[in-house]
């Protein structure tokens, strides 16, 4: 394997891994903030118990997001130095803003939240978790704006002397039409992830019959969030597909295994084809559906891979401009199917919970537990689709991935770091998951007496044991 | 003009990183010594950095981000050029972060012991490696006309770079000991004071050696002046230690680290990454910089947000100003 293939594997592994933790951080920190707000507003101690319990689990996950995030910020320079040189002027600013505006906010106020239970007033303490949660959302905005620029470069010019991209409008870069549909999509997916984990673990407790009232409360909150978020994922995804059809038609065509340009194109449920001849052998379709999804019109024309390949050769010179079709086709379908499954489950659960009932019997609870992994699979499939679908480009139409790697870094060095990251990430996955399950399985301890919260002693309320 | 401003800002971010993470690294490295007696002591030791270390680490991320945005060539050449060294840094920072966060949540003594090892290594190793990396940045790396670094990992382990690593490791550990003195009472504070006394002489010697060597390879009256001020600050810390003025001692070690890091950037200017042996290939603040528009935008962002960030970070230190105690007083 060549150095750039290994560097790509490394980026894929470290980034997909990082993004296992990010959505849960975004989703759960908001849910914990909501729980704590409910406690502060109603005084119902059950919300405080849930805040403590889920706060701890959120922190176990947050730590992984932080340590894997450092790698993200440094590896552009390490493995992709020619990329960094080419785009630094445009891509660097959102990264720097993310660190300055979002990372400081998250980390400082999360520190205050964890250790501040007995040092801050109730309301100031509540504000710290909200600020940390807002920090995670701002962070997502900046990094997605940077990624959107790779999908659809705007607000830049190519400097004729240096041959590099230079920013001409930060406003255009931060309000990229791609970003306007991507950000809501990722935010909704993150809420769905947080909600699904909340529902899954709480259903485990319900199934064991422990602390039923408490966990039922959590399931209800989780299901409401999941229902709203999965509708949000679906709608934003729909608009995203249309933006993608306009900006990166090849990505859409390869997501659909649509080889030749068609009017009234159907949406493929299952296809099996021959990539070298550019045709499908089996293709089961829903008529007119693709045209509608891509353009909102049932009869519109959708461009096919063969036509787009020919057009790209005419525009950019000889080369293969088609992504790996098996990956784009299936990752796109997995993502959409799993989103749909969760929407159905959430609607079912909410319906079953009406009038103070549980979300279902033993098997339904088991289903909700298992369904906690669905958003993870969907998030991963979504990122693999959007990044693989852009290939062979690192920056669409401007810089090929093969021209983006560090020319001075040897293949051996990339293999060594890939092995190193894989080993440590693998071990940490085991550690983090074990810790999450260990703490997640515990019965939520009742509050001990006479411990201070909000600077004053209140009998019956305990200092959450989040600190060292 | 904007290039100069951003060069200064990047320097300030690295200074902030070394001063703040310096004591985090030091406290972590000293955990097995200061907290050797029992669990209560170890908790108190880690409690001093627990609420703040994560935000301190963000100074590093911001410094990296600022280099990427303002001097992409610098970011690209240095980070790809110090590839394996940087990997080791990332590796140890990952270990440290997870160990610090999971220690309190570990359910067994064995789990906590593993975290303690991770914390010690994750504190000591970066304190050493960052010194090696930064002094090699001052010394320069071999580069092609395209600014591709051709020096390898072993080239970084030259005597000057090694002295740089030893110096930052000593200074960070000392800084951590002084920070512990400031943030604790009773036995832990006494132990930290004894460690401080042991560390001051070698730290002074290493700092003096590094300052002289830096002047020797990069020259300049300004470099010599800043180096001398760093030594003076460390001497001041020693004096404050003797008089048991914990706050002033901490100011002294913080000043020494800040001035040492400043001296590197003074020595670099107007280069950002000198090419060893081929000065014409060097990266400078002009040939490494982003365009005027990007620098202007980023200047506005920095001017608007830096004061806010520094404000709430300072407030978080104020909230956690209380001294912590170990087993002798906690009971």
| Multimeric status of the protein | heterodimer
Output the number of helix runs of chain B: 13
Succession of helices and strands of chain B: HHHHHHHHHHHEEHH
Spatial strand arrangement across the major sheet of chain A: 1-2
**What overall geometry of chain A do the principal axes of the alpha carbons give?**
globular
Mean pLDDT value of chain B: 94
Q: What's the number of extended β-strand segments of chain B?
A: 2
Spatial strand sequence of the major β-sheet of chain B: 1-2
Q: Into which percentage range does the β-strand content of chain B fall?
A: under 5%
Q: Helix coverage percent of residues of chain A?
A: 55-70%
Show unreliable segments of chain B: none
Derived from helix and strand composition plus strand pairing, the structural class of chain B reads mainly alpha
Query: What is the approximate shape of chain B?
Result: globular
State the secondary-structure class of chain A: mainly alpha
Distance between the termini of chain A: 46 Å
Q: How many helices of chain A?
A: 14
Task: Give the N-terminus to C-terminus distance of chain B in angstroms.
Answer: 59 Å
Key structural traits:
heterodimer; A: 468 residues; mainly alpha; two-stranded antiparallel sheet; two-stranded antiparallel ribbon; 14 helices; 69% helix; globular; B: 331 residues; 13 helices; 2 strands; 79% helix; 2% strand
Descriptive account of the structure:
The complex is a heterodimer of chains A (468) and B (331). Chain A has 468 residues and is mainly α. Helix content of chain A is 69%, strand content 8%. In chain A, the strands form 5 sheets. A two-stranded antiparallel ribbon of chain A has the order 1-2. In chain A, strands 3-6 form a two-stranded antiparallel ribbon. Chain A contains 14 helices and 10 strands. Chain A has helices at 3-42, 45-79, 81-115, 122-151, 170-174, 177-208, 212-247, 249-256, 289-295, 305-316, 325-352, 362-371, 374-388, 411-441; strands at 156-158, 165-167, 262-263, 267-274, 279-286, 301-302, 393-395, 399-400, 451-453, 456-458. Helices cover 79% and strands 2% of the residues of chain B. Chain B is mainly α and 331 residues long. Chain B has a two-stranded antiparallel ribbon. Chain B has helices spanning 2-34, 39-47, 53-70, 72-81, 83-103, 109-139, 153-156, 159-183, 186-218, 221-242, 246-268, 292-319, 327-330; strands spanning 271-273, 283-284. Classes of the chains: A mainly alpha (468), B mainly alpha (331). The interface between A and B is large, with 73 and 68 residues.
């Amino acid at each position: 394997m060549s150095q750039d293939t290994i560097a790509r594997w490394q980026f894929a592994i470290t980034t997909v891994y990082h993004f296992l933790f990010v959505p849960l951080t975004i989703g759960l920190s908001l849910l914990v903030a909501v729980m704590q707000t409910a406690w502060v507003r109603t005084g119902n101690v059950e919300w405080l118990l849930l805040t403590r319990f889920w706060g701890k689990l959120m922190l176990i996950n947050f730590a992984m997001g932080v340590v894997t995030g450092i790698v993200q910020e440094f590896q552009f320079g390490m493995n992709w130095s020619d990329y960094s040189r080419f785009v630094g002027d445009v891509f660097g600013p959102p990264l720097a803003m993310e660190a300055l505006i979002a990372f400081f906010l998250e980390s400082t106020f999360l520190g205050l939240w964890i250790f501040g239970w007995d040092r801050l007033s109730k309301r100031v303490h509540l504000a710290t978790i909200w600020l940390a949660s807002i920090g995670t959302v701002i962070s997502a905005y900046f990094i997605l704006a940077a990624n959107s620029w790779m999908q659809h470069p705007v607000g830049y010019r190519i400097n004729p002397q240096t041959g590099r991209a230079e920013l001409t409008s930060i406003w255009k870069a931060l309000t990229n039409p791609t970003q306007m549909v991507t950000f809501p999509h990722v935010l909704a997916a993150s809420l769905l992830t947080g909600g699904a984990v909340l529902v899954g673990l709480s259903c485990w407790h319900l199934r064991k019959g422990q602390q039923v009232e408490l966990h039922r409360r959590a399931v209800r909150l989780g299901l409401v969030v999941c229902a709203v978020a999965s509708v949000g994922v679906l709608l934003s995804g729909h608009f995203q597909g249309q933006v993608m059809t306009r900006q990166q038609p090849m990505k859409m065509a390869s997501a659909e295994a649509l080889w030749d340009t068609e009017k009234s194109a159907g949406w493929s449920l299952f296809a099996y084809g021959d990539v070298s001849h550019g045709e499908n052998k089996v293709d089961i379709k829903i008529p007119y559906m693709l045209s509608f999804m891509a353009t909102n019109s049932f009869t519109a024309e959708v461009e096919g891979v063969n036509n787009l390949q020919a057009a790209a050769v005419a525009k950019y010179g000889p080369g293969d401009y088609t992504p790996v079709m098996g990956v784009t086709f299936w990752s796109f379908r997995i993502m959409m199917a799993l989103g749909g499954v969760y929407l159905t489950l959430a609607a079912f659960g909410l319906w079953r919970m009406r009038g103070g009932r549980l979300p279902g019997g033993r098997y339904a609870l088991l289903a909700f537990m298992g369904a906690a992994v669905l958003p993870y699979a969907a998030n991963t499939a979504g990122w693999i689709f959007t990044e693989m679908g852009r290939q062979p480009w690192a920056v669409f139409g401007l810089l090929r991935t093969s021209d983006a790697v560090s020319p001075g870094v040897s293949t051996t060095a990339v293999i060594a770091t890939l092995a190193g990251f894989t080993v440590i990430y693998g071990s940490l996955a085991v550690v983090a998951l074990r810790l999450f399950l260990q703490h997640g399985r515990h019965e939520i301890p009742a509050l001990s007496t006479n411990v201070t919260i909000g600077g004053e002693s209140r009998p019956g309320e305990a200092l959450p044991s989040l600190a060292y | 003009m904007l290039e100069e401003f951003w060069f200064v800002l990047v320097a300030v971010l690295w200074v902030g990183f070394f001063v703040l993470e310096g004591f985090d690294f030091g406290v972590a490295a000293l955990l097995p010594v200061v907290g050797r007696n029992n669990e209560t002591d170890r908790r108190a030791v880690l409690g001093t950095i627990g609420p703040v270390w994560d935000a301190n680490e963000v100074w590093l991320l911001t410094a990296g981000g600022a280099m990427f945005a303002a001097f992409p060539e610098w970011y690209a050449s240095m980070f790809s050029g110090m590839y394996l060294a940087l990997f080791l840094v990332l590796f140890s920072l990952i270990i440290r972060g997870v160990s610090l966060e999971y220690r309190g949540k570990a359910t067994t003594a064995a789990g906590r012991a593993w975290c303690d090892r991770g914390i010690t290594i994750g504190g000591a190793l970066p304190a050493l490696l960052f010194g090696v990396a930064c002094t090699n940045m001052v010394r320069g790396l071999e580069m092609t006309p395209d600014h591709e670094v051709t020096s390898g990992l072993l080239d970084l382990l030259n005597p000057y770079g090694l002295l740089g690593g030893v110096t930052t490791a000593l200074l960070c550990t000392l800084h951590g000991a002084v920070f512990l003195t400031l943030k604790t009472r009773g036995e832990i504070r006494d132990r930290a004071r004894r460690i401080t006394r042991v560390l001051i002489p070698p730290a002074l010697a290493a700092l003096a050696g590094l300052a002289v060597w830096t002047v020797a390879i990069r020259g300049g009256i300004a470099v010599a002046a800043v180096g001398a001020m760093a030594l003076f600050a460390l001497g001041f810390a020693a004096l404050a230690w003797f008089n048991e003025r914990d706050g002033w001692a901490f100011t002294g070690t913080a000043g020494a680290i800040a001035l040492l890091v400043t001296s590197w950037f003074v020595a670099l200017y107007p280069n950002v990454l000198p090419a060893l042996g081929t000065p014409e290939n060097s990266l400078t603040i002009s040939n490494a910089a982003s365009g005027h528009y990007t620098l202007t935008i980023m200047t506005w962002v920095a001017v608007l947000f830096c004061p806010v960030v520094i404000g709430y970070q300072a407030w978080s230190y104020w909230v956690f100003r209380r001294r912590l105690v170990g087993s002798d007083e906690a009971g």
